[in-house]
Specification:
Mean pLDDT: 91
Distance between the termini: 53 Å
Largest sheet: 6 strands, parallel
Strand content: 15-25%
Low-confidence stretches: 360-369
Structural class: alpha/beta
Amino acid sequence: MRRFAFILHPLRFNDFARKYPVTRYLPPRLVESVFKHIDPVLTGHVMGVHSLTGEELEGWLIGLPLTPRIILNSPYEWVLNKLEKAGQMAQNLGAEILGLGAFTKIAGDRGVSLSHRLNIPITTGNSYTTATAVEGTLAAAERMQLDLSQAQLTVVGATGSIGQATCFVLAPSVHHLHLVARHHDQLDLLKARLLHQFPHLHIDISTDARQAVVDADIVIAVSSAPGAIVEPGDLKPGAVITDVARPRNISAQVSQKRPDVLVLDGGVIEVPGARADMGFDFGFPPKMVEACMAETMILALSNRLENFTLGGEVEVPKVSEIHRLGQEHGFKLAGFRRFERAIDDAEIERVKKYLASKPLLDEPDRVSY
């Protein structure tokens, strides 16, 4: 029996009510302030995960009751102390490896300092998140009959760890790449690195996400922005969008107002084991988790007890390696999903038919929603 632990936290204020229903009646800032003083808590017990190799897995979910705003705006040493307490809890429970979820892997130096304070290895899960984001995007592009050599690919959050790795993994297959991030100097550096290795690329850079997606055939959104930054009217008809970010980069209104685009939830993984129980309501059907948690589980099952993905960069060879290990154990993409619900073949065909029935205009503001 292999054992792991995973740290999670509320992505939005309403998430507090999943465990503490009374909080829905209280002012958000008051709840945030009170929970800053609460130590990490045991939130869930993962059981019933069975690898195709025959190995079994047990895990614990450790909740850090901090919102993204608190994590990002608090001194890192204070956040690090909170993470250390969560890690010590994981060690005491018997976990062999610890995964960092959501903004706990964005704070500070992406797990590096925490790894020096604990006696178990740590991973951010960003390698498997990258692998499955690319896998899902390529599958969707094929279903929508997009030619990668001609398509405009826009990566929102390109200078982040997942964004950079995504660019390097997809670079051999595309010709037109648009990089989007907040800092122009970091974009210039990434552009130079990509062109040095892939001189065939035509690369644009931008700090304006909404403008950058206007002409995009494929969008991969991995920004760490605390809320939606792309709205319904920003997207090109027929576009394929993979939203890996949590909280989402793509507005939920896109699902209601844009029947002519295909928006996918990136990085939702089905785990192996007929009776697998995740021990927590992630908002997904049973047996489904985010890819960052799945990476931790895969490493535990593989007895790869090491600091696999840490720091600000994701190594492309590790993206391939964790994808291969996941397949060996029976982890797989949970099909196409759109705003936490399954997309069937009929819906994809409706998107294609809707697109075929509508004339495309050339102006950037071609659609009004």
